[in-house]
Amino acid sequence: MASLTDQFNNGDHDAAIQAAVKRIDEKPTDPKRYSVLATMLIGIHAYDEASQLIVKALGLFPGDDELTYDAGLLAFSRAIRRWLLSTSRSLQTPKRGASSRTRSTCWR
Hints:
By secondary structure, the chain is mostly helical. The chain has a single domain, classed as Tetratricopeptide repeat domain (Serine Threonine Protein Phosphatase 5, Tetratricopeptide repeat, Alpha Horseshoe), CATH 1.25.40. The protein is about 80% helix and about 0% strand. The protein is globular. Mean pLDDT is about 90; it is low at about 100-108.
């Protein structure tokens, strides 16, 4: 699966994801194939799709180490994204009562 991973890492996300889905269809008994696709989906921030896939895969392969890792990676990625969004919003919103001079100084 290295070439599939290389394809994804080189920016051809759509083709790599389609190929990963095809590989799962070809051998649905291989948990590694689900893990590869889940990692790709997390990489493009398709968190809902990754979550659905991981839940399905863990139902098929309970306790699989790579899928469990992917579940943790997904949770971490979602948390980081929420934190970054909240941080960027707080930086863009001036504090109440701050004068325009204070705000302009803070933004430099």
